[in-house]
Amino acid sequence: MTRFTLSSPLDMHLHLREGDMLELVAPLSARPFAGAVVMPNLVEPVNSRDKLVRYREAIYDAIGDELFIPWMTLFFRNYSEAELAEVKDDIIGVKLYPAGITTNSEAGVSNLHDIESTLTLMQEMHIPLLVHGESSGFVLDREKEFLEVYAQLAKAYPQLTIIMEHITTRDAVELLDQYENLYATITLHHLLITLNDVAGGLLAPHLFCKPIAKRPEDRDALAQAALSGHPKVMFGSDSAPHPVHKKECSGCAAGVFTAPLALPMLTGWFEQHGALDNLQDFISGNAQRIYKITPPEKIITLVKEPWQVPGKYGNVVPFAAGQELPWRMINQ
Ligand code: DOR
Ligand code: ZN
């Protein structure tokens, strides 16, 4: 039987939610992954050390005894030096959302000029900045319009590690090579789908997310970066569960739920493109180097046997629901 192993896979962008949803989805990431960067956009944003410690406790309760590190992020606001010093050892970075751009981001940043002091502190204290990089312009142009902001930040804060989260365009891939301190995460779904899959036929609510999937040439550029083992890109699923009644309705919530199938699907896709040798770097090696982290040792074994993605996990419909994949994880 053909086997493939991954060493300490990491998900560098994950939404775990809270309450019942946390209980449902946390084990589905904690089993296949050795750790994940946990996003702070709860209904009440994680924007203080107290909230962060409570949230981390809830996550540990929900994952049981799986070997899994939740690397925590704070929701960006202006923090004092004392606040950052107090929380520095508990966080992997601070996540900046432009105000109102996506789920639970109303408390995000409205004016980038107001945040210079916090960015200066983060640069001095070596705290990475994670960014949801979209303007509020025309939906297909939002990421492209934001690239100017990334360039300004990269220039103004050359020692600040800046992660362009869930990039979706060729232009973003190209920007990576222009500034030493810019890095990126790429999701599974943005490697696979374009806007046609979302809205080209019958509307597909389970593929609707922010940033919206773009053009074939954008997807090709993302694929090329991931498959070639580009040293500045990391896997970040942006797995973002919403209950089915918030997806299959008028006013569909943005988010694609991929955590439980990400590793089998990525393995099949890298294999199909003759690039399996580069998956380890995309799924773990690059992130370890960029963030200077050492995850727990955890070997995940996949076997080449058909596996059907469940139609639902609890009240959440996953990406590729019901589809048969060529690889499955052992002990899934
Ligand atoms: O599609 C998305 N869903 N994009 C985001 O940026 C947030 C996420 C969520 O939290 O649901
Ligand atoms: Zn996200």
Write the layout of secondary structure elements.
Layout: E1 3-7, E2 10-14, H1 19-30, E3 35-38, H2 49-63, E4 69-75, H3 81-87, E5 91-96, H4 116-125, E6 129-131, H5 142-156, E7 162-164, H6 170-176, E8 182-186, H7 188-192, H8 195-199, H9 216-227, E9 233-235, H10 244-247, H11 262-272, H12 279-291, E10 299-303, E11 307-308, E12 324-325, E13 328-329
Parallel strand pairs: 2-3, 3-4, 4-5, 5-6, 6-7, 7-8, 8-9
Antiparallel strand pairs: 1-10, 10-13, 11-12
Description:
The longest helix has 15 residues, at 49-63. This protein has one domain (3-329): Metal-dependent hydrolases (TIM Barrel, Alpha-Beta Barrel). Helices cover 35% and strands 16% of the residues. It is globular, with a radius of gyration of 19 Å. Helix 1 crosses helix 2. The protein contains twelve helices and 13 strands. The chain binds (4S)-2,6-dioxohexahydropyrimidine-4-carboxylic acid (DOR) and zinc ion. The site of (4S)-2,6-dioxohexahydropyrimidine-4-carboxylic acid has 10 residues, from loops.
CATH-derived architecture:
Alpha-Beta Barrel
As laid out across the biggest beta sheet, the strand order is 2-3-4-5-6-7-8-9
Count up the domains. 1
- What ligands can be seen in this structure? (4S)-2,6-dioxohexahydropyrimidine-4-carboxylic acid, zinc ion
- What is the overall shape? globular
